[in-house]
Amino acid sequence: MIETRGFKLFRVVGLTLLTLFVALPVYIIVATSMKPLEDVRGTFEWWPSRITLEPYVEMWATIPLFDYFINSLVVSVIATSVSVAIAVIAAYALARMRFRGQRLFGMVILSTQMFPGILFLLPLFLIFVQLKSWTGVQFTGSYTGLIITYLTFALPFSIWMLTGYFRSIPFELEEAAMVDGTGRVGAMLRVILPVAKPGIIAVTVFAFNTAWGELLFASVLTNDKTRTLAVGLQQYLSEVDVFWNQLMAASLAVSLPLLIFFLMMQKHLVAGLAAGSVK
Asked: How far is it, in rounded angstroms, from Cα 93 to Cα 207?
């Protein structure tokens, strides 16, 4: 296909506008994070009066940011590990086995993606309160309740995606392994999981990202000791003052681990998403 001059011009202009639309918020965050406090209290300026790294130092003292970081890390890692482990087993069963109610189970999993997350906030809270009265186990204000909540978000999509990925893997690979004396579980662990590595990494990134940046449920189900980063960052906004420069600096700092993790897994993530949806 030969591109006309008008189409090339349209493409260049469109891509330039899209790049500016995406880059502008990033520039504002970075520029604000390097402004002194007096620059962020008045009229917004596109360029700092002087560049300083003090907000990156002061942000740790203004609020207990490190504690919130540890809380988010604990909740995200546990929720991701458990959801991926369960999703692998459930997806393998849906892809390779035949059992009564299989189609209904798959439809139920897929239908959960139709409802907005806020719809489950009050029911989950009431369930956790009732469970505490029955068992004495504290679910609200603890890691446990938040981890269970994030499992309900990550599991349906993870199972649905891995099911499609496992179905794209030829069954002959397992048959060859089982002919050599390996059982079904051994074939899954030694043959299927290595082949399905891109898909597993894709759902891992999705589950971790869901838990790391979630705000609504974390603001209701946590307390001062278990508060996560998404909730804790709001403490830079007080009734007396708003530390915009520290808030922007903290936002960049807490986004860095997720960005590094995404860049490390980018190749596998793209391969997993493509294989799970196309093959």
From this structure: 20
Could you tell me the residue ranges of all domains in the chain? 61-278
Give me 7's structure tokens. 């189409």
Q: Per-residue pLDDT tens for 88-145?
A: 998 888 888 787 877 888 788 777 777 777 888 888 888 888 888 888 788 888 899 8
Superfamily classification of domain 61-278:
MetI-like (1.10.3720.10)
Tokens of 253: 């700092």
* Cα–Cα separations (whole angstroms), residue 18 to 14, 27, 270: 6, 14, 21
pTM of the model: 0.83
**Which positions ≥6 away from 136 have C-beta within 8 Å?**
none
Could you tell me how far CA 259 lies from the centroid of its own chain?
11
- Quote the DSSP letter at residue 120: G
Instruction: Decide if 143 contacts 74 (C-beta within 8 A).
Output: yes
